[in-house]
Amino acid sequence: MKRALFIGRFQPFHKAHLLDIRKILKEVDEVIIEVGSSQEKNTLENPFSYSERKAMITKTLRNNSITNFKIYPVPDLYNDKKWVDYVRNNLPKFDAVYTGNKWTYECFKKFNFKIKKIRLVKGINSTIIRERMANDKPWKNLVPKEIYAFIVKIKGVERLKKLR
């Protein structure tokens, strides 16, 4: 079985993430989703907890008929080697790392992992979405419907505004 590791903070999970997972699953049998900064929550950069992010991703993927995934929390360790070792020792074995993040790419490259770059989708990223949410600008079209509904239900926009 071929497995891929897909790394992100998913603050929040958006349509480009969903597109990435679909593309990855054309190359592998299973995707391991690493939710980074898993210890972070209720901050401007990381407003959603690990359990909220996991619930959002799980519901979205299942509603899109994607079932060959597993989700794992990975905390920030502030040391490249310790972080990579943590991933290697605490997540299932994987054949390649998929990322669009330059630091993540360089970090895994240093330790001789097979890495595949993900092409970022212009205009869609979590920072833009959080900024739009906080400033009452349209953001619904950038996230899957399940994510929008989840964030509305947990009053995520209000939470984000309070964090500013």
Could you walk me through the main structural features you see in this protein, from its secondary elements to its overall organization?
By secondary structure, the protein is of the alpha/beta class. It has one domain (3-163): Rossmann fold. It is built from seven helices and five strands. A five-stranded parallel sheet has the order 3-2-1-4-5, sandwiched between helices.
Number of helices: 7
Query: What is the β-strand count?
Result: 5
Tell me the number of structural domains.
Answer: 1
Query: How far from one another are the termini?
Result: 45 Å
The level of helicity is: 40-55%
CATH class: Alpha Beta
CATH superfamily: HUPs
- The CATH topology corresponds to Rossmann fold
Outline: globular
